[in-house]
């Protein structure tokens, strides 16, 4: 279950973190699985005070499905957009 009860299909009454007002917005979500990363464009309820994001159950399930695909290197449905790098740790 999500951190707050929904009052309608996609709108929270208020932010469960700070109690501030929320607005539906288009956002980017980075999902990681194994060594792979995907950038998703989704809709979320976003607190206009603290920035907390709240996603629908369907959207969270989509994140989980894509995370599993990435972990299995099943990326045939995803478009490559570049390379990611991690800085080497200094000794």
Which runs of at least 5 residues are low in confidence (pLDDT < 50)? 1-9
- Tally of discrete structural domains: 1
CATH architecture: Roll
Approximate helicity band:
10-25%
Shape: extended
Contiguous helical run count: 1
Q: What class would the helix/strand composition place it in?
A: alpha+beta
Top CATH class: Alpha Beta
Strand order of the largest sheet: 1-2-3
Brief digest:
With 91 residues, the protein is of the alpha+beta class. It has one helix at residues 57-71; strands at 22-33, 36-47, 53-54. The chain has a single domain, classed as Ubiquitin-like (UB roll), CATH 3.10.20.860.
Outline the structure in words.
It is a single chain. This protein is α+β, with helices and mostly antiparallel strands and 91 residues long. The chain has one domain (1-73): Ubiquitin-like (UB roll) (Roll). It has 1 helix and 3 strands, in the order βββα. The protein has a 3-stranded antiparallel β-sheet with strand order 1-2-3.
Quickly list its features.
91 residues; alpha+beta; Ubiquitin-like (UB roll); three-stranded antiparallel sheet; disordered N terminus
């Amino acid at each position: 279950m999500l951190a707050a009860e929904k009052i309608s299909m996609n709108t929270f009454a208020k932010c469960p973190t700070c109690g501030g007002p929320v607005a539906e917005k288009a956002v980017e979500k980075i999902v990681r699985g194994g060594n792979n990363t995907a950038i998703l464009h989704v809709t979320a309820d976003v607190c206009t005070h603290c920035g907390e994001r709240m996603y629908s159950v369907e959207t969270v399930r989509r994140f989980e499905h894509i995370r599993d695909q990435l972990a299995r290197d099943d990326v045939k449905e995803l478009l490559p957009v570049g390379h990611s790098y991690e800085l080497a740790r200094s000794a």
